[in-house]
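Action item from last week, closing it out:
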Amino acid sequence: MVSTRLHRFLLLVLALNAWACARRNDEPTPEPASGTCSYVLDGRATTGTATAVRNPTYHVLDAAGDHAAELLTITCVGTVAANAAPEKFSLDFIKLATEPDAAFRMLPSPGIDVLRYNPATGSDYTNYVLGANLTVKKTATGGFSGTFSGAYPATANTGQSTFKSGVFTDVHP
């Protein structure tokens, strides 16, 4: 009789433990704060601040002529370490001037401009990201949120690097 009670007790403990674990996994992940960005660069997770600038006087020239457009630039400044220069990059999106904000899409080239501090020369330099993948959508509060990933090529001073899991949240112009 003792073994039956012990068996039932152990089953109850296991069931409660499984329920508690399942409940923890159902809890939503908190949304990142407005005006922030986060990304993984070469396996290192970084967070930072994000700003947005709209340029409503941008023009696109193609075979069909000159088209009035609008450029949306999201700039992310990531904090790498306490005494290190911050990483700074911009994400560029474009739409025709007559289109709604929902039409913003990745600027075909380069998409992401990376500015990094070069300790050898003391100056910043720009790399254009290869295989960039950027998304953007307008938020209910009037800001912009989206994702980004891609790689930038090796230079004389750095090896090739890869962006993963990039996110910017509710960034307002």
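Closing note: Residues 32-171 form one domain.
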